[in-house]
Class I SAM-dependent methyltransferase
Amino acid sequence: MITHEDLDWWLETAPALTWTFAKTYADTAPHEYVVAGRNGCPLSHGDFVRAAKVIATFGRPAKFYSMTGIYLTSRDGGLKWWTMDADLDSTDLINQATTDRVYGPQDAPNTRTGSTVPEDALATEYDRARDRRCDEILAEHIRRLFPEGSPRTLDIGCGTGLPLDFGVIDAGTYTGLDHSTAMLNMLVRKHPHVRALIPASWNEGVVIGAPFDLVLNIEGPDVDPDQMQRRSSGWVITARDGDVAVVPGKARDTRSGTVSVSP
């Protein structure tokens, strides 16, 4: 679990570290770094992993040209930190730069919910701890219902975007809704080209109005089944306590390129 105590630890620790200027990027992307076991760095491997998970939990997505990463900003807004490892548990280097160093259009997905929820503390371990059997069943249903391509999907309570991990939905056709910034950050780490994120609790008013081919609610918030069906022109798949249900949608979709399915 990662909590605000871990955040406080990093924000107090970072200023006391000896940061090395990255000479290789002196002209193109000036920044500093600390790396395990070099230049007297006092951080243990566990400290690097802890810091990486703090950044992933409390940071925000931003762009470095075409690359999307998660960046944590200091309390005074002057510094930012980021890591490059795909696996947080392998982190042995942390980068630092001033926040005025910005490269390329800043069109990264928005994950800011403006609130703290219990799920934030679990986000960095969520994928590892989850029972994947339900997700495998879900993937089989999606392959069966949409054999010709990736459906335009609304995932309510999307968490870290596990349906994307199975390759049955493309990030470019996926909209995820969740009330946990940290969960959405972890989704962006894995799938930076996600079509859209809605950082909010379930609410009829915040959901995109056009119907989707597929609406998912996998162990997500309690939602009136009719509300989900009215947002789907194809199918609704829900899972609760491991039980998966598949029902047809009720919306009529006249857009070109609509996936055609019949109950």
